[in-house]
Amino acid sequence: MLPVRLRLLGIEKVNEDLAIFRFSCGKTLKFSPGQFCTLTLSGTGRLDQLGVLAEKDEDLKARLKGFSNGKVTRAYSIASRPGIGLLELIIQKVNDGGLLPPGNDGKRAGIATTELFSWVPSLDVDVLAASAAENDVSIGFGRFTPPDNRIIVLVATGTGNAPFMSIIREEYGFEHIEKKWNIPQKHRKIVFIHAVKRLDDLHAYAGQLIELEKMCDTFTYIPLCTEKGIEEEKVYLKEKEIKVLYAENVFVNRQEKDRLARPNSLDPNEIDSLVKKKTLASAFQKITGKALSPSLHYMMFCGNPYTGTNIEKIAKSLGFSEKDFAKEAW
Q: Which of 22, 129, 182, 235 shows the greatest Cβ crowding within 10 Å of its Cβ?
């Protein structure tokens, strides 16, 4: 493994806590759609100062995950398609990391995202490469790729949409420079279900996905939101009308915990009730006109681990086995 230097080309702020970061190294970046890359941030005064503090405080040092000698390492799923010179990441700012000193709002920010969200174009970052040649660099790790030709059902929460954007863009031929779709004659069918906490989180990619859905009858986009008041509402995102469903009419993404300690968490019997009702399957059939079945569909989930557990339970109740379902959660 060796580090390869990337140059930050630009940051597209979706809102104050969500942004798209684009990097380049002047070479073709090799990876498989669905993989992640590993970035190392270093050389900033804030990180150097934190390194000095950590050397004096063993408790702080133990809590600094992925941090050493003024460098912090983080893994991020890749949102761009492979085989081009561009690396695109969508990153959520960590506002309660519990590591850096609290700000004026009393919250403790995460190390890596605090750095990234304060950057400006032309700064450099290292990406871990499995191999590097004269014209290309292999930066992808992990395996999270659809295995066969069944219809792909992608379910994501938050920034779990990143690996699925890579899969969708590769399958339907997204041109990053022109920002348009060049759909190949041969491609697989995809249903993409994406749930977010804030409606404006959808601004990141909704425009591209709405355009693709209008161009291609083999792609279905189902955006969801957990904001109260979202009930099959038609809203406008970047001047495009989109139908957004209330997330909990499709699946539940709350944590199964003691309801007295966490009033908004799940009662242990609530998931079992949803499994029996086949809520996800009913919503899926209502929207797509087809029953969710392992003989026709391959399911993939990425995002909140509690939602992933809930989705997996529902999938198993519908007959999906390990060969029909893949999950990445953090």
A: 129
